[in-house]
Amino acid sequence: MFVRRGLPGDRVRARVTKVKRNHAEALAVDVLSPGPQRVDAPCAHYPACGGCRFQDFAYEAQLEQKQRQVEDSLRRIGGIAEPPLEEIVPAESIFHYRNKLEYSFTQTPSGPALGFHKAGRWDEVLEIERCWLTSDLGNAIRNRVRDWAREERLVAYSQADGTGYLRHLVVREGVNTGQALVVLVTAPGEKFERERFVEVLRGFPEVRSIHWAVNDTPAEVTNVPSTLLWGEDAIEEELLGLRYRVRPNAFLQTNTKMAERLYGAAIEFAGLTGGETIYDLYCGIGTIGLSMAAHALTVWGVEVEEESVACALENADLNGITNAAFYAGNVGQVLEELRDRAGEPDVVVVDPPRAGLAGKALKRVGETGAPRLVYVSCNPTTLAGDTKRLHEEYGYELLRARPVDMFPHTPHVETVALLAR
């Protein structure tokens, strides 16, 4: 029996929501007696909001659960009896840690509002007054845009019938630079005054980049092409002493402080001596590869998103790094060509999405035969499955694995793993 909103040690009254042959699911509707790990959640929107799932779960207990999650995956899926698992790295801050948030508009009696989808609901958005994941600046920008939308008498888009106009608001922050980028996403048509929208946001001196994007599809997405309304086309962030330009749709780890810990672990695991050829696969805007460049001979990055590749190339120039090159392409499709151009790698770094080394990617990575493989994972189950295949098919052994808590109060955990052959 899996009980949502129930914590270890709780005695609850629950409503069964699903029954299957091997398990059942239920929702705790009342806590009769709390367990020792239950704490008070500070957010007024919890637990209705779907943004956080474990604010009422003591942080030390969250870390223990995530450690066990990685260990269990490596044992059960990876087939490793005694995983070489290190102690999880706790988050430096358990609140106000996200550098990017995507809000949805919803229509209320007072006019448009901004918030997140309610827990378990794709069709209902909960208005947010203060989010504990973003900064005071992020909260202030969101609330000011809400007020602007009401002043302009604009209408929120309805996912149910496709009417309305305002769809999303994206706020990105450079935590170490104090810069902010804002993207307004609407349905087709220009139904607002650009100058007034820019004027409102320029009331925040941190805002350096203002964009407008149009989503003309039913899909609830924000990664669509945008038009620059004012300022620079990107903001900058600083990680491990290097500066990075970040455009609206470019990938960057959403917890800046813990990204530095994550990348530091990747550099440590790579064991660089200065003469290595590195493949940086799923490289995003080049953060991991560029942070390794000073310790290696050459870095070759591959990323499928062209906007991120453009940022990576700019970031190499911005930091005066001349031994790194980046290419747009699917890892599974371009790796053979990269080997012809760059030569055989000494270290391969992979930072794939939650699906892991999908398609031909694992085969192509295994075929490189690189002595060291640094795997940065956001999903313990796919890390374990990929580790098993890399061992059985290409002779790689898992030597180290270090979980890193990038996302407190959520079930998600990152892991840096070192495999060698």
What does this molecule look like?
By secondary structure, the protein is of the alpha/beta class. The protein folds into three domains: 2-57, Beta Barrel (OB fold (Dihydrolipoamide Acetyltransferase, E2P)); 75-91 and 255-420, Vaccinia Virus protein VP39 (Rossmann fold, 3-Layer(aba) Sandwich); 100-234, OB fold (Dihydrolipoamide Acetyltransferase, E2P), CATH 2.40.50. Helices cover 27% and strands 29% of the residues. The protein contains nine helices and 19 strands. The two termini are 41 Å apart.
Search tags:
421 residues; alpha/beta; OB fold (Dihydrolipoamide Acetyltransferase, E2P); Rossmann fold; 7-stranded mixed β-sheet; 19 strands; 29% strand; globular
